[in-house]
């Protein structure tokens, strides 16, 4: 029964904090990058959707304008050239 994954392994599978500090969202309308941090214990898609919703609220643009454009590896947060919202 070792080959059957546990529920915890499914939860941890989408936790990106082990490999990445954050991610970059591109505003395709003005070609501007924003960076956001991943939240430990939260699925990456949830964090990304919350970040895009925040950008939508701040800029007034539609969802179709924003896309996740890259990942920020551990230790590279400060070296990444993107605006923090």
Structural write-up:
By secondary structure, the protein is of the alpha+beta class. The chain has one domain. The protein has two helices and four strands. The protein has a four-stranded mixed beta sheet with strand order 3-1-2-4, covered by helices on one side. It is globular, with a radius of gyration of 15 Å.
Q: In DSSP terms, counting alpha (H) and pi (I) runs of 4 or more, how many helices?
A: 2
Strand content: 25-35%
> How would a crystallographer describe the biggest sheet?
4 strands, mixed
Helix fraction bin: 25-40%
Give the topology string: H per helix, E per strand: HEEHEE
Number of strands: 4
What is the distance, rounded to the nearest whole angstrom, between the alpha carbons of the first and last residues? Answer: 46 Å
Q: Tell me the number of structural domains.
A: 1
Overall, the morphology is: globular
Assign the structural class, choosing from mainly alpha, mainly beta, alpha/beta, alpha+beta, or little secondary structure: alpha+beta
- Rg, please? 15 Å
Q: Averaging pLDDT over every residue, what do you get?
A: 88
Q: Going across the major beta sheet, what is the strand order? A: 3-1-2-4
* Low-pLDDT sequence parts: none
